[in-house]
């Protein structure tokens, strides 16, 4: 990270990525995981091989420097709006490669999530809900892991590729769905540590060892089943699943020209890994690009950071399309919130959730479509205002799931989507 990048963050704890051991267990936030969940619906998506890619621009990317530019306005900043491959749709000139993929993307420009805190914004964009003191809701990745993944898929259902070191499982992401559907962190787009069988141990002996562990786990669970013990057991099973698919983590076979298009920096490598995992059967993959919290030098920072994002992301879309995967892969490019139309004294933009944008594409999405509109200054939504609940409903509808369905936790019905949210029909095929 450059010195400019380091000074841009607002120093909130959300900008520190947690580091977990691959076999580490997190039980917090899943106290209700032992409760049964009734069938949301039969799983017709398995045969259709639906999958989801989330690209999370951490820190709050500026909508004015990406999807909703306002050139010439006092709030607009120094950059031009450029035409794209979608007739009539213009985006910021900092995204020239993505502009050529806009016929495959839809823009939601009327987003108002009404939450300017990093952690709370992150929660909304992953669950479609505002935080409640009495109940934690599952991430969209965990929902996909439960209702899109094949039962015997050797890959964990929710894979989270993060920059830097560390890795592990986070059962809390799944909330009441249970630790089986929590996220598994893939550190720096590389194969997890200790993914190989210990040297000198043959497969039969290794299998016998795991069968002994499973028997001991089952005996213990019969008497003391809880969210914590389930998470402990599941962490071992997820590690075994990853071992069976370790070849997916070796990108050395990628064509040199394609690798060059992605780039050798972290985000480029992570995009390659995301495509390999999706192609290999992963139901949900999340990659992140940091850190867009540009309270200082917003414009210089976006020049630098979006230059790193633009070409790899456009390459990823084209690559998915060329392999026949994009039509069955829901793509979302989201953030915690946007940036203020007002420019502060440090040439930065602050947190702004009242009028911002996200991009969607692929499965179930009308490429080149636009929903919502902000005013000439970008200060408020003037047409088709939506929130996180609308986005969550849109994701499910695009995947062929029914947003009106409910979970049942100890006979208590819990709507899968905030009842105030409904699908954004303008962008849905």
Features:
single chain; about 425 residues; alpha/beta; Alkaline Phosphatase, subunit A; about 30% helix
Account of the 3D structure:
The protein is α/β, with parallel strands linked by helices. It is 30% helix and 17% strand. The chain has eleven helices and 17 strands. Helix 4 (118-127) runs parallel beside helix 11 (388-399) and helix 9 (266-279) packs parallel to helix 10 (298-322).
**Mean pLDDT across residues:** 86
Output the number of helix runs.
Answer: 11
Query: What fraction strand?
Result: 15-25%
The amount of helix comes to 25-40%
Strand order of the largest sheet: 6-7-5-8-1-9-12-4-13
Known CATH architecture? 3-Layer(aba) Sandwich
Instruction: Flag low-confidence runs.
Output: 1-8, 16-47
